[in-house]
Amino acid sequence: xxxxxxxxxxxxxxxxxxxxxxxxxxxxxxxxxxxxxxxxxxxxxxxxxxxxxxxxxxxxxxxxxxxxxxxxxxxxxxxxxxxxxxxxxxxxxxxxxxxxxxxxxxxxxxxxxxxxxxxxxxxxxxxxxxxxxxxxxxxxxxxxxxxxxxxxxxxxxxxxxxxxxxxxxxxxxxxxxxxxxxxxxxxxxxxxxxxxxxxxxxxxxxxxxxxxxxxxxxxxxxxxxxxxxxxxxxxxxxxxxxxxxxxxxxxxxxxxxxxxxxxxxxxxxxxxxxxxxxxxxxxxxxxxxxxxxxxxxxxxxxxxxxxxxxxxxxxxxxxxxxxxxxxxxxxxxxxxxxxxxxxxxxxxxxxxxxxxxxxxxxxxxxxxxxxxxxxxxxxxxxxxxxxxxxxxxxxxxxxxxxxxxxxxxxxxxxxxxxxxxxxxxxxxxxxxxxxxxxxxxxxxxxxxxxxxxxx
Length: 455
Ligand SMILES: Cc1cc2nc3c(=O)[nH]c(=O)nc-3n(C[C@H](O)[C@H](O)[C@H](O)COP(=O)(O)OP(=O)(O)OC[C@H]3O[C@@H](n4cnc5c(N)ncnc54)[C@H](O)[C@@H]3O)c2cc1C
Fold this sequence. Notes:
Elements: H1 2-10, E1 17-18, H2 21-28, E2 42-45, H3 49-62, E3 66-69, E4 86-89, E5 96-100, E6 105-109, H4 114-122, E7 126-127, H5 140-146, H6 153-156, H7 159-162, E8 163-170, E9 175-179, H8 191-195, E10 203-211, E11 213-214, E12 222-227, H9 230-242, E13 249-254, H10 255-265, H11 269-272, E14 275-280, H12 286-299, E15 304-308, H13 311-322, H14 324-329, E16 333-336, H15 346-360, E17 363-369, E18 374-381, H16 390-405, H17 421-443
Parallel strand pairs: 2-4, 3-4
Antiparallel strand pairs: 1-2, 5-6, 6-10, 7-11, 8-9, 8-10, 12-14, 12-15, 13-14, 13-17, 16-18, 17-18
The structure holds flavin-adenine dinucleotide (FAD).
């Protein structure tokens, strides 16, 4: 094994190959509580595409598994180490190679932190729309590999909708350029789309050409509505979308989440309401649309429905939404799930989650990118437990199957990773699974790219 690594060191600049156990320990896990990381052989902290290529050429020659890694914020176990692997970290490839305001595009290396790209775009009056809640700690490469969503996606689409082209290093070390810099273009197969959402199993993304959009001139008004029941809030979401309002943000939090935030920050949210909806419209008719959304919430039973126009208040409400995950994390170990249903089925889906929680005696706190029909039921269990308790898996199984029954999907944005593999066939069926294997075998014949993930 030492000889192997000497060969790897020989093709990389000094210091790139890390074997210090304490340092490696920081790269083994991602944010997924249910994933059991293996023991890596080393970490490669790449700084250039050529170094990624050299690593993958060496890995293919020696049949060594490679786990690509960005920010390590995966909630599906996608970035968790497998035994004997090289963890290939892109986190030091942080150059924004280009911002072109006239063409409204940017070229960013894979390790650029998502919010940093958005800030670079903001200097030109533009924005990079995908904004996962992890945007201060996740990377463009990781977002592409998982096709990440976020709060603004209800209007601006997910990461796939923002990408025009990629630089990808294939297993074996060949560097491929996919896509283009134009907003249209259909020459050849959509190889860019193939790599988006492939979770590091087909190649390593080293840079991306992405679309930017005009940044709204000011913070839009924020509608905040509190409801006596989660089902009422879900109905209000359906009513807003049916009224053809195009919100730029439509987020939902249930009673358990509000209580967790109150326990921590003492905001008194849960005293007044069982579910909270936060919405914005950043278009030209923002004021009118905000009032329409407020009225629709009131009609669906909101006991509190207000429009906040001040920038500070708007930002505070968004901050409340971003507190949801850390607040729930304080209650115990959080297993974060990610189902997505057609938006008209949202009321049924929240009812099915509540039923699963009651039936199996499991605490489930739900937040949702409700405008996308994307729910994050967070299953919380005691810290004393050595692993995810069986009742949690049974409740999760019920929630996944309910999403599929309602015409939805297992994962709206976090990916399959390791923890959703067992449900994959139930959603995809045998033919689609077979095509997945054909693609995987064609691009990664030695099976070294993030083995055991997705498939
Ligand atoms: C608090 C919190 C909030 C979150 N909110 C959201 C949210 O709103 N929306 C959302 O979609 N997700 C969210 N997530 C999940 C996570 O942030 C996303 O999946 C994110 O896209 C992962 O990016 P990363 O850089 O951390 O990638 P990692 O976790 O390092 O990797 C994720 C996957 O991508 C692969 N990968 C990473 N980089 C590359 C690359 N350059 N080339 C090929 N494969 C690569 C890895 O092998 C792994 O399979 C959240 C996570 C946390 C902890």
